[in-house]
Amino acid sequence: MDIRQLQILCLGRDVFVTALVSLLHQARFPGKKNITLLKIRSRLRYLPLLLATVAFAGCAHLASMSPPGTDDGQATVEESSEPVASFEPDTLYDLLVAEVAGHNQRFDLALGNYLQQAHKTGDPGLAERAYQIAAYIGARQASRDAAELWASVDAENPAALQARAIELARAGEYQVAADEMLRVLEMAGDASFEFVAVSAADQGQEERDMLIATFDQALKRYPNNSQVLLGKAILLQYNGRNAEAIKLCDRILKREDNLKAVMLKGRVLMAMERPDDARRFLADYIEDAPDNTRLRLLYARVLVHAQQLDQAQEQFEILLLQSPNEPDILLSLGLITFENNMPEEAVGYFERLAAFNSHKSLAEFYLGRLAQQQDDWQLARQHYLNVGVGKQLIPAYAALVQMLADHEMWPQAVKDLRAARELYPAFVPQFYLMEGDVLIEQRAYEQAAEVLNKAIKTYPDNINLLYARAMLAEKMSDLALLEKDLRGILAIDAENAAALNALGYTLADRTERFDEAEELVGKAYELKPDDPAIIDSMGWVAYRQQDYEKALRYLRAAYEKMPDAEVAAHLGEVLWVKGSRKEAALLWEQALERQPDSEILKETMERLQGGQ
Predict the structure, then answer these.
(1) Pairwise CA distance, residues 129 & 134, whole Å
(2) pTM reported for the whole predicted model
(3) DSSP letter string, 17-64
């Protein structure tokens, strides 16, 4: 049986399997020295039928796939009626096994056989095939190996050199990759300088500057090559040279309608905080490329940034019609309708989004928020509890606890948090912290202390737990425990500004250990000079040392950054003591209007004004 007979027979799967078994048997038959294959030519960017031995269109699963970066999934197969390569029976057998493996989506086995036989035979077609499979399944080491082999045995093939350049870029060898791309360009191949530029995005500016110099050398020889221009524009954008990047995009667009250049210019305009310019620029191209999903998605996001939410929603709805099973589009529509106070529409989008495992927790979180907005705490609680491990887990429980607290359902909040500790052992410290906060809000300090003591016994070096217990100790006037826990934090992290500040402030406020307080708060200030809470502490330490002018400078600066009731209490007290009582009283009244429940502010006013 020859290959053409196999192709003809492969009209149905059962017929194919029968024929293949026969051919496999023939390939292993010792009387045959070798069996001839027909030549299959394919482009690097597409995944063709693997070999002419099994060119059963519609039978092999691999034939329908395309590697990452492919613009469409169409395979290009060209046959030659002349036999151009011969393989030993064992080689052919392994290749046929690879085909069957690919048909059954066992791409690891298919790749292994192709790569092994490519090395054994040195055949360019097999090396190319091994590279295509490795690139498709993301087998980085294998794709590098196959690309190197392919380029070495097919050195005059620009597609092979481009494959090697891509793998060099992925491996971080950007300069070598750029040089290889230049060789591809010299051979009139499709050189992806853009890929090299994007791959270098996370490198330092010095590395990118060196690449820009390499691209400039290429532009001296090929001044109008859009790939080189685009690659350089990308590098300029990463280096913050946005205006220059836009000029290169415009240079490309004057010569051709290049959607990659369009999208890059749109992103650069956004980076320059010019959303209206980006919106107007992209709108023209959307009309010319209405089916380009990536371009429309960028346009929709630009509209969101430009606060054109109604228009953005319209664009996302078009995208949803084009890609009804795309979760990121459902998410965008859900967020837009959520922000636009359209709860019914938002619920619909998030319910659809919840069907995708990858986005289920995020969808449940927003469904919980929507139910909470509608004051349906039972439904909201259920949605919050449906959130699983991931970024939304802790925010979901924080929202749940706050919601239950607002409904004065403290016992339920504690019960849910204790259940969460069983369900999610990796997050136990966070749930202990939440439970402690719940009890502290109820002023159940003894119970809160029991919870935090239990937590710290299990997690003795957890800084957040130690800090929470220290703050509770301050409320319970247990300054010894407060100092013990804060110094415990500093033993773990000597530059923990929050612990330094808290201990220094407490020593200044509750004791006469002013020198220690000044040293601690001063160190915190060195670490975070712009933190208004630390600036307030600097002022309060100075006040306790009776350096009122210094205290005023710090406290006014703190109040300007953070007009908080506690800072107002401190600043007002210094003003009062200095004799500026009208200014102090006015300051307190304004602060009390903003924060009428501030205990420290009320206590300060009563203590000072009551003694007039």
Answers:
(1) 9
(2) 0.62
(3) HHHHHHHHHHHH-TT---EEEEEEE--TTS---S-GGG--TTT-GGGG
